[in-house]
Amino acid sequence: MSLAPHIWPVTATVQAGRLFVGGCDVIELAERFGTPLYLLDETTLRSAMRAYRQAFAAAYPGPTQVHYAGKALLNTALAQIVAQEGLGLDVVSATELQVARCAGVPMAQVHLHGNAKTDAELERAVAWQVGAVVVDNLDELARLRALSGLLSVPQGVLLRIAPAIEADTHAHIATGGAAAKFGLSLSALDEAVAQTLATPGLRWLGLHAHIGSQLFALDQVVATVEILAAQAARLRDRFGITPLELSPGGGLGVPYTADQPATDIYHYARVVGAAMQSACARYDLPLPRLTVEPGRSIVAQAGVALYRIVARKGAQWLHIDGGMADNIRPALYGARYTAVLAHCADTLADVVVSVGGRYCESGDVLLREVALPSAQPGDVLAVATAGAYTLSMASNYNLVPRPALVLVGNGQARLIQRRETEEDVLARDIAL
Question: For residues 81 and 317, is the Cβ–Cβ distance under 8 A?
């Protein structure tokens, strides 16, 4: 049995049966750093970032901007890599914005997103002069207008619209429908533009939309581009303005199992770039800056999660020392994953088992009915494609500390996010 190359990091190999990532023996890493443990392969991560920049530069003759979506996974070291690779960063909270600043990400390359931004978050974004606040609703716009009154340099604004496109994805990660909680309705767009233009402290940059995650049907992305261009042309005719920037969001799907197709960043860029050129030609618009915000498809494949098997229940169950508190996706979305036993990663899988997490919920099942070799307590289970929406949504359910994150490459392992301790978890408590 061989590792599916589109599921595992590009550096993943099997040597004498043992799984290596980034030139590191993952069993040795599990022993050194403990489990659960998350690995992030630097080569896979940087390669995806470079592929996005190169693909869009080649596919679109206008200016392009690739923003990493921090909600997929964010910490200071990762934000430093984002800056080093020339990407912008999308953040959705004051703390994510703080991480960006600590990492040295240029604030002009940061966009603040979110449907319920607090006053504190807006104040920080304006004070630190982020490149754009992506306005989600009229109430937010009113608060932003009030904050911008004394600005000597206007704050850039993108207006997020709900394009009424029902993406072909799980309902929990579909964000572009008319009834979605995100974005201005098209009927409210003109009012938002009028208010923005009437505010000297704000500068209208253009329009943004995002219809969802795990998108494989690119015709829906093309439809989003068409709506953005059509609305931009209508606003030009009414207000005499043309957009500097149009963003159809991100959401390119990634495979989690071998039967799913590989992510093709270059094809995605060609489709989106051609759609923007065609739509702008149709509506007689100058080519705007094309901004995309891939998060999952940059970081997912770079991640591997390691767990220790602690018990068995008959022939049907393996119990591990992690689960839904470090990876909620199987419980939340019914997500599927690919896994191997790290000491025999190339051994033919001959037993069908389910892998249950340690948390006190019947829904805490990391893998349902997957084929693995016969396993024993103490074995290390390695789960592929674990870089996105795992640690970023981790919790302290059952008061269990969150795992560590290690960056691997060229045979070296660097701890970039330490494991929480019991003292960390208890630090917020105040005794009576």
Answer: no
Output the CA angle 114-120-123, nearest 5 degrees: 90
> CA-CA distance, 234 to 181, in Å (whole number)?
24
94-103 vs 119-127: helix axis angle to the nearest 10?
20
Residue bearing tokens 């909270």:
93
Do 132 and 255 fall into the same domain?
yes
Quickly count: other Cβ atoms within 10 Å of residue 172's Cβ: 12
User: Is-above-0.70 flag for pTM?
Assistant: yes
Strands 245-249 and 202-208: parallel
CA dihedral 123→126→127→129, nearest 10 degrees, is 150
pLDDT tens digits for range 2-23: 899 999 999 999 999 999 999 9
24, 102, 280, 360: the active-site residue: 360
In 3D, which of 40, 37, 36 has the Cα closest to residue 11?
40
pLDDT for 187-241, tens place per residue? 999 999 999 999 999 999 999 999 887 888 888 899 999 999 999 999 999 999 9
Rg of the chain (C-alpha set) = 23
C-alpha distances in Å from residue 267, one per residue of 221, 226, 262, 272: 13, 18, 11, 9
Domain assignment of residue 334, given as a range: 13-34+302-426
CATH code, 18: 2.40.37.10
> What is the C-alpha separation between 85 and 53, in angstroms, rounded?
9
21 and 75 share a domain? no
- pLDDT tens figures, 272-315: 999 999 999 999 999 999 999 998 999 999 999 999 999 999 88
Same domain assignment for residues 239 and 256: yes
Contact predicate 61/96, CB 8 Å: no
Which residues lie below 8 Å from residue 370, measured CB to CB, with a gap of 6+?
338, 339, 349, 352, 353, 354, 355
Angle at 408 between CA 406 and CA 410, to 5 degrees: 160
- Taking only the tens place, the pLDDT of each residue in 351-401 is 999 999 999 999 999 999 999 999 999 999 999 999 999 999 999 999 999
Of the three residues 236, 263, 295, the one that is the final residue of a domain is 295
Bridge-based pairing of strands 303-313 and 317-320 is antiparallel
Known active-site residue 360:
yes
